[in-house]
Amino acid sequence: MFVLLIILFIWAFYSRMVVTRYTVYTEKLRWNQTLRIVLLADLHSRYYAEGQDKLARLIRDQDPDLIALSGDIVDDRISTQGAYSLIKRIEGCAPIFFVTGNHECCRNDLEKIKDELEYYSVKVLDDGQVITTISGEKIRIAGLEDPCMRKCNVTKRKWIRSKKDLFHKQEDMYSILLSHRPELFYLYDRWEFDLVLCGHTHGGLIRIPGILNGLWAVDQGYFPKYAGGLYVHNGKTRSYAQVVSRGCSVNPNSPRVFNPPEIVVIDIKGK
């Protein structure tokens, strides 16, 4: 019994980076085409081993076609160097796209942060979109800048109303949205993206596999519905996939139980 308790304890507090994989299917890619995305969120400028080499190697080993950074890569309380160190090591691996999270938006030097990221060939998507060709396929990639309410002098409801017509659907190509907050899915549904990539939840902090997917997440409270994983939203005329990263950060002040830090690999396959 004692040995079993030790094994359970190690499993519960395992904190090495894991790779979580999801597959989604679409008719907007050729039937034999696959687009691989590596999703990172909530790094919070923290290091994994000296110089971020292990984490960068893990990302490169996934052979991504696109790297998505869905917010809180840079923290607002500690040095930015952990984030920049990782980005320098994955520069050139695949096109990198970034959208802000609440911690970046709460910094006083946000524009400088964006300039630094652009210097390392990261495309910053702040309420904008680009159309790019990846593996011979035209892809639309958009980003919703985070509404850090500590700096915005508007209510959340008013902010949402101001964004409702931000993006317009383009049915002829596969469309991806980067946005830090998963709980705003009703807003994303209006824009008719095929895939939405989020973070913010840190996996709900405490999980019990098969029973509890997350205990608490910011902006969702206890027992969050979108704590981490792959979700499919079915609307009146269409459905779309939402992937929520459980985050890369390990912080002693935010315990992770049965909830190791992760990078997420999403394979989009044509059907």
Main beta sheet strand tally, sense and closure: 6 strands, mixed
Strand order of the largest sheet: 1-14-2-3-4-5
Give start-end ranges of low-pLDDT stretches: none
Spatial extent as radius of gyration: 18 Å
Distance between the termini: 49 Å
Compute the average pLDDT.
Answer: 90
Order of secondary-structure elements: HEEHEHEHHEEEHEHEEEEEE
Q: Estimate what percentage of residues fall within beta strands.
A: 25-35%
Number of helices: 7
- Helical content stands at 10-25%
Q: Structural class of the secondary structure composition?
A: alpha/beta
Regarding quaternary structure, what we see is single chain
| Topology, number of strands | 14
Question: What is the molecular shape?
Answer: globular
Highlighted features:
single chain; 271 residues; 6-stranded mixed beta sheet
Description of the molecule:
This protein has 271 residues and is of the alpha/beta class. 22% of the residues lie in helices and 29% in strands. The protein has helices at 2-12, 53-61, 81-90, 102-105, 110-119, 156-163, 185-191, and strands at residues 18-26, 34-40, 66-70, 96-99, 122-124, 128-134, 137-144, 174-179, 195-198, 216-217, 221-222, 229-234, 239-244, 262-270. Strands 1-14-2-3-4-5 form a 6-stranded mixed sheet. It has a 6-stranded mixed sheet with strand order 6-7-8-9-13-12, with helices on one face. Strands 10-11 form a two-stranded antiparallel sheet. Strand 10 and strand 11 form a beta hairpin. Helix 2 (53-61) runs parallel beside helix 3 (81-90). The model has no long low-confidence stretch (mean pLDDT 90).
